[in-house]
Design a protein that fits this description.
The complex is a heterodimer of chains A (292) and B (320). Chain A is mainly alpha-helical and 292 residues long. Chain A is built from 14 helices and no strands. Chain B is built from 13 helices and two strands; from the N terminus they run ααββααααααααααα. Classes of the chains: A mainly alpha (292), B mainly alpha (320).
């Protein structure tokens, strides 16, 4: 008995260490973002913000004058994270809405409608899950360039707007699980497939659709590679790309760490809020994606 | 679907026949087409997306790998020249070596830690808060994770090096040429361990409790139970987790792009970064496409081998 209890104590000790290691970097972002970059060297070991200031946030949001920024170790270049925040919201929202809606339509056709070639087309769609993104990314870049869509929102969202194999596959599995009786009853009452889909199937699948939407939103928000290729221009630049550029612009010897951390927190914040509100759904979704 | 007797009663395709529960049989042609008109409507957007952004680029990518192409002037067919060039390309072999090193380090540390974490979660707590905390790093963009660790591991000002010095050791150049790859593998382990642990956790929950009861009756120790019962029963889930994480780690890019950018010298020039560099800095699209084809074949081969070796489709549960 005593042996088991010691095992639990040791187990909890490891778990607590893992959680501390997980949380510490987040605390360090916060601590650094409230510090004065010029003072960081002197107070490198301090656990609290060094020379507390909101200057880093003012720099990131474009509120401080050049002189002010330079005095606190920032660069003289201006950044406008409000603009990048807007761009990230536009890209993630449009991508999510399109992918979930069109994905649901296709998934319904694969799960419930009977048509020749259905299984062949579905197999073809799912095969695309196996193709590593880089293989299609280069030709997609060429295509977006040929269409004249470089540095436009459409160019950034288009490849993931109409379908991803995962969205179709994920929703099809759920539609297959819905009791067909309810739909049949609706059909007998005279509802066509379109009506049945919008009035019965969609409302019944709110849960899985919300899960897919959250996963898509997070993926889209965090994506770096594709927007880096097609959306570097300021007016469509998303937060991840902006962070990369912000980092590469900071002087080699003494980067504006406080500014950089304020910017990363700013970029991570919306996802954190989303997670705080919808945490359980996100956590539960991990099980689904694993058992695909 | 039960009766195929053809009744010639004409009816509108979607209109119901009052009083019948089973759909009335249709004329042969309409019956074979089924719901085709509606289905076309439903599948069309996704099919266009698939054709334009998955199928066409896959075909085009394969073709481009046989050309010399700089995006500005039309592609010129050169046969297998790009692939021949790969064999003699020192940077390609270097990229392969560096990537393999990263994958091995990342997979080993990630799998061991995640497995431990999953078992701890399973045995100790049902708390959503704990699971949420563990998952947190996975929800943050690679770019952000990379920047935070780049700062924490900074040679002069980074908190980690300050702790190391405080403990009486020498400061460590985490992003120097010797340690850069292990460091990046560590950073990504930090980001993915909670996510992977929750995947394994989901697998643990699928093991029926009766199996553990039987092991307990036989007097098996906790340690023995883990190796003899839990791990074998977890195999199908682990196979999937391993395939997904190996394929994922072969594609490491973001972390490297914002920290070392392939350096120092070529120490972190992984395959993905090399492809990016070839295409967008040297405008050598044909060669970059050839390299992505090689990566594709490599990944497909590894996934196939892994699934074969781990007999992923079979479960041990039936025999137990």
């Amino acid at each position: 008995m005593a042996g088991i209890r010691w095992g639990r104590v040791a187990g909890w000790a490891v778990l607590v260490v893992v959680m501390l290691v997980t949380l510490f970097p987040f605390y360090w972002m916060l601590r650094t973002s409230f510090s004065n970059t010029r003072a960081l060297a002197a107070g490198a070991a301090d656990l609290l913000p060094v020379d507390f200031t909101l200057g880093a946030y003012r720099r990131v949001l474009g509120l401080s004058s050049t002189a002010e920024a330079v005095a606190e170790g920032g660069s003289s270049g201006t950044v406008n994270f409000w603009l990048y925040l807007r761009n990230s919201i536009v890209v993630a929202t449009v991508t999510t809405a399109g992918q979930v809606f069109f994905g649901a339509l296709a998934a319904y056709a694969f799960a419930r409608l009977r048509w020749p070639g259905r299984n062949a087309v579905f197999t073809l769609f799912v095969t695309a899950l196996m193709v590593p993104p880089i293989f299609t990314t280069l030709p997609n870049f060429v295509l977006i360039k040929e269409l004249g869509l470089l540095n436009t929102f459409l160019g950034i969202v288009l490849p993931h707007l109409l379908m991803t194999p995962f969205a179709v596959f994920f929703l099809r599995q759920f539609f297959l699980g819905i009791n067909a009786g309810v739909e049949e009853a609706a059909r007998i009452d005279g509802a066509g497939h379109v009506r049945t889909f919008f009035r019965i199937v969609l409302p019944m699948s709110r849960g899985p659709i919300a899960t897919l939407a959250i996963l898509t939103y997070i993926t889209s928000w965090n994506d770096y590679f594709w927007p880096l290729l097609v959306g570097k221009a300021e007016n469509v630049r998303v937060l991840t790309v902006a962070l990369g550029i912000f980092r590469s612009q900071t002087p080699q010897g003494s980067p504006d760490w406080a500014g950089l951390m304020a910017a990363t927190l700013f970029a991570a914040l919306p996802i954190m809020v989303l997670f705080a509100v919808l945490g359980r759904r996100v956590i539960d979704s991990i099980g689904y994606t694993g058992v695909k | 679907m039960t009766s195929d007797t053809v009744r010639a009663a004409p009816r509108t395709p979607s209109g119901p026949v009052p009083g019948t529960v089973h759909p009335t049989p249709r004329p042969p042609l309409l019956r074979r087409l089924g719901d085709l008109p509606v289905a076309v409507l439903f599948v069309l957007p996704a099919a266009v997306g698939f054709a334009l952004f998955y199928l066409w680029p896959a075909i085009r990518g394969a073709y481009l790998s046989l050309t010399r192409y700089n995006v500005l002037t039309p592609a010129r067919f050169i046969g297998l020249e790009n692939y021949e060039k790969l064999f003699g390309d020192r940077l390609f072999w270097n990229a392969l070596k560096v990537t393999a090193e990263y994958v091995v380090l990342n997979i080993v540390s990630q799998t061991v830690i995640s497995m431990l974490l999953a078992v701890l979660l399973y045995r100790l707590t049902k708390s959503m808060l704990v699971r949420g905390i563990v998952l947190l790093p996975y929800l943050v963009a690679n770019v952000i994770v990379a920047l935070v660790w780049f700062w924490m591991l900074d040679f002069q000002l980074g908190v980690v090096n300050n702790i190391i010095e405080w403990l009486g050791f020498d400061r460590v150049a985490f992003f120097g040429s010797d340690l850069a790859i292990p460091t990046i593998a560590g950073i990504n382990t930090w980001r993915h361990m909670g996510y992977t642990a929750l995947l394994i956790f989901a697998g643990l929950q699928m093991i029926p409790p009766s199996v553990y009861e039987a092991a307990a009756i036989d007097g098996a120790s906790e340690w023995r139970t883990f190796w003899r019962v839990t791990l074998p029963l977890l195999r199908p889930v682990m196979a999937l987790v391993m395939v997904l994480s190996v394929i994922g780690s072969f594609q490491v890019f973001d972390t490297i792009a914002v920290t070392t950018a392939g350096g120092p010298i070529n120490a972190t020039r992984v395959i993905y970064f090399y492809i990016y560099d070839l295409a967008f800095n040297r405008f050598n699209f044909g060669y970059a496409a050839a390299l992505s084809s090689v990566l594709f074949v490599l990944l497909a081969g590894i996934a196939y081998l892994q699934l074969r070796l781990s007999r992923a489709g079979e479960s041990d549960l039936r025999g137990a």
